[in-house]
Amino acid sequence: MADTGVRAADPADGDLIVRLAFGSMAAQTLRAAVRLRVVELIGDTRRAATEVAAEAGAGPQPMTRLLRALTGLGLLTEHAPDSFSVTPAGALLHPGHPNSLTSFARMFTEPVMTRAWEHLDGSVRTGEVAFDTVFGTDFFSHVAQHPQLSVEFNAAMSQAVRESAAALPGAFDFDRFTSVTDVGGGNGTLLAGVLNAYPGLTGVVFDTAEGLAEAQKTLERHGLEERCALSVGDFFRSVPKGSDLYLMKSILHDWADDQVVTILSHCREVLPPGGSVLIVEPVLPEVVDTDAGVTEAVITYLSDLNMLVNVGGRERTRKDFEDVCHRAGLSLTSVTPLKDAAPFSLIVAVAD
C-alpha cells in the first residue's frame, strides 16, 4: 500500500466508527425516553425502574434496559441496581425545565425528519431532495397538512432559537433602527428577545399562518402586544413594508440559491435608505475547521446534509452569502460570529 502520510489506525479509531454506527440507535433511545416521559417520571429524586415502568405503562425488565442505556448515554445515573436519577443533561428532556429541549429532541427523532436520511446516498448522487420522494410532497407542505406535527415543529424551532434570542441583543446595535421585521419569525421568540432589550424599537413577526400559530401568546407573555404586530404572508411573494431592519434566522439555509435570491430581493424592494438586512446563520469556513470545536463542526455539517435530504437547502460559506446577496441587489458588509450562540454568525447586508 502506498504511503499516504496517514498514521496506522489504533483502537480509538475503531471506537469512533462503532460509535458512529450506533448513532441512529442512540437517537431512537432518546426518542423512546421522551415518548415514555422517563425524565418527568423520575423527577428530581432517585426512583426504581419498576416504579417508572408502572407509571409509563411499560414492562419492568424492558424499562430497566432502557434506563441503563440512557445512563450509558449520560442522561441518567444508576446509583444501585434498579435505582436511577436524572443528570443535568437529562433534565433538559423535562418539558418544565426553563431550557427544555424536549420538543427539539422529539422533532429531530421523528420519522418525518429521519426517514429521508435513509436515502442520503441517493441525494448525494443526484442532488435531489429525498423527502419529497419518500412522503410525496415537500417538507413544509407535509408539516402544514398535519396540525399536531406543525405544533411540534414550531415548539422545536422555538427551543432551538432561545440561545440566539439571548445572545443577539448584545451582539448587534439595534439602537440605530426604528423597526425590525423578523422574516419567517415563527412564534416570535427571537424578536421578543430583541424588543425586550431595546424598548424604543417596534417590530413585526412575519410568517405563514401555521408559523405564527403561537406568536400572539409569545407577545402577550412578554408584554409586547403594543410594540409588535403579526403579519401573515409568503416571503416568496413579498415581505411587509415599513421597517428599516429585516431579520432572518435559520431561514435561508432551508432553500436553494434561486429561492434565497427571491427572499432577499423582496427584502431589498422594501428596504429604505440606511436600512439593513441581518441574517443569522452558520457560515461555513472554506476548509473544515475542527479546532473551533468538534461538536460545532459536527452539528453544522450534519445540518447541511439535513438540508440536502429534507428540504433542498444548504449551509453556506461567506462567498456563497456574498453571491446570493449580490444577485438580490445587496452588498454583504460584515460577518461576525454570534458569541454564546455558536455556530451562528451575524451577516449584515445593505442595498447596493
Automatic annotation (TrEMBL):
The answer on whether this UniProt entry bears the keyword Cell division reads no
O-methyltransferase C-terminal domain span: 117-330
**Gene3D superfamilies linked to this entry:** 1.10.287.1350, Vaccinia Virus protein VP39, Winged helix-like DNA-binding domain superfamily/Winged helix DNA-binding domain
Q: Boundaries of each O-methyltransferase dimerisation domain copy?
A: 19-94
Q: Does the record bear S-adenosyl-L-methionine in its keywords?
A: yes
Q: Which domain of life is it from?
A: Bacteria
Q: Which UniProt keywords apply?
A: Methyltransferase, S-adenosyl-L-methionine, Transferase
Q: Which PANTHER family match?
A: O-METHYLTRANSFERASE CICE, PUTATIVE (AFU_ORTHOLOGUE AFUA_4G14580)-RELATED
Kindly provide the name given to this protein in its UniProt entry.
Answer: Acetylserotonin O-methyltransferase
Source organism per UniProt: Streptomyces albipurpureus
